[in-house]
Amino acid sequence: MADKTTDTSRVLIFDTTLRDGEQSPGATMSHEEKLEIAAMLDEMGVDVIEAGFPIASEGDFAAVSDIAKNSKNSIICGLSRANIKDIDRCWEAVKHAAKPRIHTFIGTSPSHRAITNLDKDEMVERIYQTVTHARNLCEDVQWSAMDAIRTERDYLCRVVETAIKAGATTINIPDTVGYTTPNESAEIIRELLEKVPGADQVIFATHCHNDLGMATANSLAAVEAGARQVECTINGLGERAGNTALEEVVMALRVRQDLMPFNTRIDTTKIMNLSRKVAQVSGFAVQFNKAIVGKNAFLHESGIHQDGVLKNVETFEIMKPSDIGITETNIAMGKHSGRAALRSKLKELGYELADNQLQDVFVRFKALADRKKEVYDEDIMALMSDSVVNTGEDVLQVKKLRVVCGSDGQEAALTMSVKGEEKSATCEGDGPVDACFNAVKEIFPHAARLKLYQVQAVTDGTDAQATVVVRLEEDGRIVSGSAADTDTILASVKAYVGALNRLIVRRTKTAPDSDMKTVSFKQ
Ligand code: KIV
Ligand code: ZN
């Protein structure tokens, strides 16, 4: 359990990339990917990993329990609504961890109370019962007042007091809709600490969404007011405008120690690799000018800046690239580089592969090195982002593609394997990518609609690889696929097929039970 008393300058980092982050439409991650990310978060020094919402599906349950079993130092937490069935299921999943936590929540603002059909007193009763039940199972219980910011202040004090009396050890005050401002965020924490009996016995947490672009500022203001747990995600992943970005909070606390004398346990040199990994598996590319982890975050384009940085790095840089794990050794690899060199480069970039996976990547690395003179770190990361790496058992696999394009029209001849059986189709389309996607649809008919098609060059030059992200939607399920290749059209087909493979997996997942609909979870 997180200790309240030891060090008042210590801020706990609670990462919810695998729960709130994964709720971003299209950001679904596979079981293995979740386990890998959890292991990286644990190694980076994250205090609490929110690994999922165990009752939501069999897949979520399995992910939370496996992450719990594999955990080393981090507390492993699962989410549950305010009912006994959810809490029991959550406990079943997290109990395998050396340090388990049950996180239970209910929406306390007027609009949430209306949805739950509970009046103020009934809700207080429900909070008391559910937190007591959770505490009887687990000594570490977090309680959240969803939409706390829009909850009447006196009622917020009352529900927080109830949760503390029932045994909650962490009280989370979420800004569920990203509505607050730094002043208000601080004021609420201060008021709760002052007015609520027992507040000094628990840890207050801040959980901000970024709808108005103030999540990091609001979280830091809450810390200055007394919150000692920040809830955040890698790259600020999360539904709508996302959650507070872990890397922003951690680096802000580190860079502005003079103003904010708080410490985290985070090994910041692991930030960049985690950012890449999350971008890769979620299919959500990091915007170029994103603070801390964006491609341009440490680039100085203007002459004045370059000159200043060359003379004295502190002129324009408030932190070093190496602080977040950007290595200066972006040495090009080429077709003469061997397996050992590739393995060591992959390790440097944060990928530890089993021998059979390494062999697969090596074959594709060689193929790339044949087509591209110099293979840079970005190319290797793009190779790793190619969904094919992780999916030996994919139902659909691209076997052969021939495309004719130009002023006389476009045609794609595609061969794919569908559950091991080879099928081919030749289709025309409105452009080469459209022709290819039509061929995929002919081979594997489906009703999924294309929600996003995004192409990004990985490096400079006309021989650069393109990373393609495709997002599909079917019956409310949203999935993404990504792939990289020097051939943009081939990468597009592979990304599309990757997304379809994920959709096939999602179709087989158990739908959340009907009780999920009676207590609203999301905005
Ligand atoms: O944003 C929110 O209110 C949440 C809660 C479930 C903690 O994610
Ligand atoms: Zn949230």
Helix/strand-derived class? alpha/beta
The CATH superfamily name of the largest domain is: Aldolase class I
Low-confidence stretches: 387-391, 510-523
**Helical residues, percent:** 40-55%
The structural domain count equals 4
Assembly state (oligomeric) = single chain
- Report mean pLDDT, rounded to a whole number: 89
- Biggest β-sheet: strands ordered side by side in the sheet: 1-2-3-4-5-6-7-8
Backbone CA Rg: 24 Å
In CATH, the topology of the largest domain is named: TIM Barrel
Q: Counting H and I runs of at least 4 residues, what is the number of helices?
A: 18
End-to-end distance: 30 Å
**Silhouette:** globular
Describe this structure in words.
- The two termini are 30 Å apart.
- The strands form 3 sheets. Strands 1-2-3-4-5-6-7-8 form an 8-stranded parallel β-barrel, surrounded by 8 helices.
- It is α/β, with parallel strands linked by helices and 523 residues long.
- The chain has 4 domains: 271 residues, TIM Barrel (Alpha-Beta Barrel), CATH 3.20.20.70; 30 residues, no CATH class; 61 residues; 112 residues, Alpha-isopropylmalate synthase LeuA, regulatory domain (Double Stranded RNA Binding Domain), CATH 3.30.160.270.
- The chain is globular.
- Bound molecules: 3-methyl-2-oxobutanoic acid (KIV) and zinc ion.
- Zinc ion (ZN) binds next to loops.
- The site of 3-methyl-2-oxobutanoic acid has 9 residues, from β5 and β6.
Secondary structure elements and pairings:
Blueprint lengths: L11 E4 L1 H5 L9 H14 L3 E5 L5 H13 L4 E7 L2 H11 L5 E8 L2 H7 L3 H18 L3 E6 L6 H14 L3 E6 L6 H14 L7 E6 L6 H11 L3 E4 L13 H10 L15 H12 L20 H9 L27 H10 L6 H17 L5 H9 L10 E9 L6 E8 L2 E8 L3 H12 L5 E9 L8 E9 L2 E9 L2 H21 L6 H4 L5
Parallel strand pairs: 1-2, 1-8, 2-3, 3-4, 4-5, 5-6, 6-7, 7-8
Antiparallel strand pairs: 9-10, 10-11, 12-13, 13-14
Bound molecules: 3-methyl-2-oxobutanoic acid and zinc ion.
3-methyl-2-oxobutanoic acid binds next to strand 5 and strand 6.
